[in-house]
Amino acid sequence: MCRILSLVFLFPFFYSAQITISDTDMLQSGEMYFYSSSPDFLSVDVSLTGANYSWDNSALTVLNQDTLNAVNVTSTPFLYQLYFNNIAQYPEHKADYAVVGQTIDAFGQITISNVYDYFKVDSNSLQKVGFGANINGLPASVKYDTIDQVYPLSMTFGTTDSTSAYYILAIPTLGTYGQWIRRKVEVDGWGNITTPYATYSNTIRVRTTLYQRDTLYVDQFGFGTNIDRPIENIYEWFEPGSGAPVFKAVESSGALTEIKYLDTINTTSVESQFYGDWKVYPNPVVNILNVEIGSEFTYEIYDIEGRLIKKIDNCFSETIDLSCLSRGVYTLLVKTIDKRKSYKLVRK
Length: 348
Hints:
Number of strands: 20
Structural class: mainly beta
Helix content: under 10%
Number of helices: 1
Largest sheet: 10 strands, mixed
Low-confidence stretches: 1-11, 269-275
Radius of gyration: 23 Å
């Protein structure tokens, strides 16, 4: 009897070992996922985890939606590709895909915008090898001097890892700027998770503790300084074959700042004002979008970061070719003299 009980108690741990996330479960070039963001920060308790745990986040409400789009390196701006599309000279930094990254503001002196982060995946790890961006308005390609390992691979319940990375770059007329990064990764739970979109029965939870320090050296004054950014805890749930996290929560300074979950396309338009029989179709759109307003209008197209992609004035009926845009979610703003309407536009 004691032997049977021992096997019963050990069963969850044997089962958890079967949930393995490997390189084939990571994001691949050409894949795109839609995520819904929720403002219900008080509804998610990230302290709850463990073996064979059930997380229920089915009641979350939706604030907005964005995309995770892995684009081919060659489709990113040419001046960004220096280190990431040259296997002969920079084999360690040859990237498999790129995704849109976050704008960085540092010390009130440096703005890193229009960012693409470059990633490399193999059987041992997922690595962020660098980024391309406009740095104070100038395009640049920035490789990590020590490559940033995002996850060790493969990952199962109980996996732990700790890595560090850094980069240094020259800022014209200013000096040098760099960032030091440390990641502590722990797979601290497994089980099933329910979101408003689906229930995933075989997931692992990956907790990443992220430490970042900005460094600036000003040539004119011969002076350098460091600033530690707030520590972030990133919680992500992966299911084998999912390609990307099915659920994600980010905690900074002890409070949740982001909740998002894998979802389907939401094509609901967002109206600021509505007048008359305005037609915008089809949506989602593959290549050609038709806009029929019935009077003279102006239209503007913005990407998910709010950057203006295209603007045309003095239209009466417009056929818009969107084939040059990457797949994803955009905002179409249509304006007449006294009316305006914005649409969530999906390019598929």
